[in-house]
């Protein structure tokens, strides 16, 4: 079993709230718009981090992290990208990649809108943790915590903080 902290759209922002939660998990996953490598560098000092770059990220960030990150953990195939859409409205560039990947869990960011929903057609769970940074239109800062255990996603918690 692995405990995961899933965040996105930090836009260079990191605070004690995020760091506290990072200490409580086994891995940190970042779905893009990191904003500054100091964010991922500091998080990586706490726990292993898996991340993708987002549309605001600079060339240095794009050299360090991929556009798409596919991996398997605890029997769950994961596909992470920044701009992905959601079931029924996937980014046209992402849909064929998703179909090919046969992912169990599809994660993206970008919208600043937290969503967790099932895609029955592709037989996967979609997660967007919203935005934990302070830049953007969102009124509440959000991220997700969950466990990956023997092929399933368990104990999903929505973490909300005032902006």
How does this structure look, described?
The radius of gyration is 14 Å and the shape is globular. The longest helix has 10 residues, at 37-46. It has 163 residues and is of the alpha/beta class. The chain contains 4 helices and 12 strands, in the order βαβαβαββββαβββββ. The mean pLDDT is 97. The chain has a single domain (2-162), classed as Purple Acid Phosphatase, chain A, domain 2 (4-Layer Sandwich). The strands form 3 sheets. It has a 5-stranded mixed beta sheet with strand order 3-2-1-11-12, covered by helices on one side. Strands 4-5-8-10-9 form a 5-stranded mixed beta sheet, with no helix packed on it. A two-stranded antiparallel sheet has the order 6-7. The protein starts with a strand and ends with a strand. 19% of the residues lie in helices and 40% in strands.
Terminus-to-terminus distance:
32 Å
How many DSSP-defined strands?
A: 12
CATH homologous superfamily? Metallo-dependent phosphatases
Q: Give the SSE string.
A: EHEHEHEEEEHEEEEE
Give a quick account of the main beta sheet: strands, pairing sense, barrel closure: 5 strands, mixed
Which architecture name does CATH use? 4-Layer Sandwich
Mean pLDDT: 97
Helical coverage, percent range: 10-25%
Radius of gyration: 14 Å
Structural class category: alpha/beta
Range of strand content:
35-45%
Q: What is the number of independent domains?
A: 1
CATH top level is Alpha Beta
Spatial ordering of strands, largest sheet: 3-2-1-11-12
Number of helices: 4
What is the overall shape?
Answer: globular
* Low-confidence region ranges: none
């Amino acid at each position: 079993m692995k405990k995961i902290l899933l965040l996105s759209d930090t836009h260079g922002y990191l605070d004690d709230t995020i760091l506290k939660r990072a200490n409580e998990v086994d891995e940190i996953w970042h779905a893009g718009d990191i904003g500054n490598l100091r964010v991922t560098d500091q998080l990586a000092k706490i726990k292993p981090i898996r991340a993708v770059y987002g549309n605001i990220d600079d060339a240095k960030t794009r050299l360090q992290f991929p556009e798409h990150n596919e991996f398997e953990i605890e029997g769950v195939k994961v596909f992470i990208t920044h701009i992905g859409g959601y079931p029924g409205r996937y980014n046209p560039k992402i849909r064929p990649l998703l179909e090919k990947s046969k992912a169990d869990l599809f994660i993206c960011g970008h919208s600043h809108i937290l969503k967790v929903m099932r895609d029955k057609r592709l037989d996967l769970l979609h997660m967007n943790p919203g935005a934990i940074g302070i830049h953007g239109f969102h009124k509440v800062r959000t991220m997700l915590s969950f466990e990956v255990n023997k092929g399933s996603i368990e104990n999903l918690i929505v973490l909300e903080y005032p902006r």
